[in-house]
Amino acid sequence: MAYGTLRVENLKTHQIKRCEQHNLRLYPEGKMPENINPEKTPYNHDWIAGDKPTFKDAINARLEGVPVRKNSVIAIEFVMGASEDFYKGNYEATGYL
């Protein structure tokens, strides 16, 4: 049986760099967490940066002219995943969304 997961996390300014480091696998040599399989990284998709070089630059461009408090939530991260059965079966993703 196939199943899906969705994780949602509010991100404040000081968490953006850590989020980017983790999502883009930008760890220094030998510091990659054991639960990350670098061979599967090409399957990841992010829709935040666009043409900007970093997540922070993309967020700042979107918030230009908006007053932001020091402890404000400036982004919400959504992580979606599915079980291996989903990819092996004949499931239509649109039927589940």
Describe the structure.
The chain has 3 helices and 2 strands. It has a two-stranded antiparallel sheet with strand order 1-2. By secondary structure, it is an alpha+beta fold. It is globular.
What's the short story on this structure?
It contains three helices and two strands; from the N terminus they run βααβα.
Percent of residues in beta strands? 15-25%
Alpha carbon gap, first and last residue: 17 Å
- The secondary-structure class comes to alpha+beta
- The total of helices stands at 3
**Low-pLDDT windows of residues:** none
Main pleated sheet: 2 strands, antiparallel
According to DSSP, the number of beta strands is: 2
Q: What is the radius of gyration?
A: 16 Å
Order of helices and strands: EHHEH
Helix fraction, binned, reads: 10-25%
C-alpha geometry? globular
Order of strands, main sheet, comes to 1-2
Average the pLDDT over all residues and give the rounded result.
84
Based on the model shown, name its key terms.
97 residues, 20% strand, 3 helices, two-stranded antiparallel ribbon, 22% helix, alpha+beta, 2 strands
